[in-house]
Structures are given as C-alpha cells and as structure tokens.
Amino acid sequence: MGEAVEIFYPNGFCNGTTKNQPVDSWYEETIDEDLKWSFALKSVLYKGASEYQDIALLDTKRFGKVLVIDGKMQSAEVDEFIYHECLIHPALLFHSNPKTMFIMGGGEGSAAREALRHKSIDEVVMCDIDEEVVSFCRRYLTVNRDAFCNKKLNLVINDAKAELEKSTEKFDIIVGDLADPVEGGPCYQLYTKSFYEKILKPKLNENGIFVTQAGPAGIFTHKEVFSSIYNTIRQVFKYVLAYTAHVPSFADTWGWVMASDQPFSIGAEEIDKRIAERVDGELLYLNGSSFLSSATMNKAVYLSLLNETHVYTEENARFIPGHGLGNHL
Asked: Which residues does the UniProt record annotate as the domain PABS (predicted)?
C-alpha cells in the first residue's frame, strides 16, 4: 500500500496521501513556535474575511463543525458545551436572582443559548463587533438558532467597550466571551485593569458578578495569559475565583475567572439544587461537585496565581503565542 506522505502548506491546510487512496485534507493551527495541532477535514463549509477578522467553518472528522477565527479554533461542535457551560452557568448560579446579562463577544450564540436556559433571566444583551461573524453563525450553527430568535436576546453590533461606556443600564452578570489576547488583535484592551475598573465594574449592579474566559490554563501554558488575567482582575474585585476544565478540541486545559465584591459561598449541594430549580434541561458537563473541584488548582498553577505580579495595561500586555494562519485561508 505504500507509506502515508503528508505535505504541510503554510496556509493552514495540508494534504495527506497514501498510494492508491484518496487525498485527505487537514487543518493545522500553531499552538507555539515548536508545537502545532492538526485535524482531518471532511470539508470546508465556509471561508472568508470580515472587516475585522478571517473566518472559517470546517467540518472535521473528529470534532464535527469547528469555528476558526484568525487561524485560532473558537469552538467545536462535539465539546463546545464544556467551554460554554463553564463560562455561563457558575456566575448565574452563584448570583441570588440574576435577571440581566451583558455578553462581550459571543457572536456564535452559544453563550447566549446557555444563559437563556435560566428561568430567572429577563434580558441578555450580546454585543459583538463583527456582524459578519454573527450572520454566518446564525446561518450555519443551527444548534443556536432558537437562541438567536429568543425575544429575551438583544443583539447589538458594536465594540463592547464603547457599548458599555455609553450604556445607562446596569447588569447582574457581565461575561467576557472574547477571543484570546493576540498581538495585533482588537480584544486585549478588554482584559486591562483600566477597562475592568473604569468601565466594566461600574456597569454591574450591587452583588453583580463578572466572568471571563481566560485562555489556556494547562501545566505548560497557564503563564501565557491565565495567571495575568487572574491577577489583573484581583486588583479590581474583592473576591476572585479561577477555575479550569479540559477541552479536548483545544488540546489543553482551559481557564475562566469569576469575580465579585460579594463572596462565593455556596456549596456543591446548593449548586445542584439551583441547577435543578433554575435551569431548563440537563447540563451535560457541570454539577456542584465538579465545579468546586475545577476551582482547585494543582500546585504549579496555584503557586503561579499566588505569585503573579503582571497586570494588564494598554502599554503592558501579554499575548497568546502565535497569530494563527487566518490571513492565508
């Protein structure tokens, strides 16, 4: 049969061929300068560029439909529930009676979908800067179609910073469902101390909670941005909780940071009780005991969070290694 020969191209795609067998297409993403992550494709469903970023929707053999922006995987059909349940539900469950939420980013609609499962929620404002991303996600990601049609969802196309700045409304929950801070990208300013302190926190109601995705949190990757985001938020809020989960399609453990000026003081049984009472349908990943476990760091990560001194500012930011390959799609 002959040996398989793989030819990798610099545009993010490669072909793997075996003698007398059809060509397989692969997608490749740079994780670090000496590490890449690739997966076999069934097809490329969409590729294009908006005013702000390059966009691709891939149908993969292992992970189903995969959303890629600027060469970085954002979510995969088979395991996006892990990321989005961890991002959305803890803050809603720790709040005594959440009514309103503001989502920064979240254009694919999955964060809004999870939030709208909570019976107490009256309004979800989802603010994404890129109308083209939102439009094609509405078209292709059918799992979120009901969320986009929900009357409680207020979809705003704008820069989240500008929208929060001009808003006269305050929210029970504010969510950062943003792209990772990448050098040259538009999002890193939404991870800075001045943004959290001067713009975001004043838009929270009393007892309000802020939560953000915080990048890779693995044993080898947590110092890239996770520890810095945690330490930056710690400068602004009295109570800050970091937690992590493994997301297979990201090829790493992922991190989130939740913050408030009120303590996070409920236990596993109460979390499970609130899930049963407040949430429509079954959660696939999260329960009380697993969440509390996710907030317990291994020794290396714990010490990094404890000893981190870097604070995000406009002049002094940290970035995820690599820029992806989006410009060549």
From this structure: 24-261
